[in-house]
Amino acid sequence: MAIGVSTACFYPNLTEKSVEYLAKSGVKEIEIFFNSQSETNVRFLSKIKKISDSNNMRIIAVHSYFCSYEPYLIFSDYERRFDDCLPFVDSLFDAGAVLDADYAIIHGGRPTGKISDEAYFERFLTLYNRGIEVGVKLAQENVNQFRSSSPTFISDMKKYLGEKVNFVLDVKQCVRSGVNFYEMADAMGDSLKHIHLSDHNDRFDCMLPLQGDFDFKPFLNYSETIKNATKMVEVYNSAYKNFDEVIDSARQLEGLIY
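RESULT FIELD:
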């Protein structure tokens, strides 16, 4: 399937069980959202890799399990804490490398953080370079109530970092931030590499694709960058009643677009 599915959809189902379910469902591109530190150890990753390889699955990206703590650990004004957290970030990169993932995704820091945007970008660059050492590219996701919710911040980040930044566009996070999808895509430009897909209406901000009011076709054909980006259904478990609905949504969306 050209439209993949993130294991985040099935939280709090165990990560390995979610991968097994996606494999049995015929999904060929997935994103793995780690939910604990132990899920980045070699033994656990070997199990995931065995499932993906035997089912011809491609793991596009891995997602930080400590995303809620990134403002405190990575993007605070206490530099020693940043230094001390580097092994945790390295474990994310190493896990991505074992799984042959292209990207490792983070949420970043909050607007209330005391470091400057330039200092933020330099912290990101430090992490980006560490990821490149093992073949995994760091990606910044737009997230509500984080600095990355602002298209201006994203545009400034791209200008500052040039080719050393990748972006993930999350549709539901745009909705929650009150940001136009096209404006966010333009801010990310050719650094937009990965998209989290969901739907919404005037009552709910996170629904399965094609169950709300979002017009997917013009958005997914808006630019060559969006067309070429990898795409995942990523919703919360409140968006459906059973797992099969997630797979059906991805297949229907793929049939509409491709």
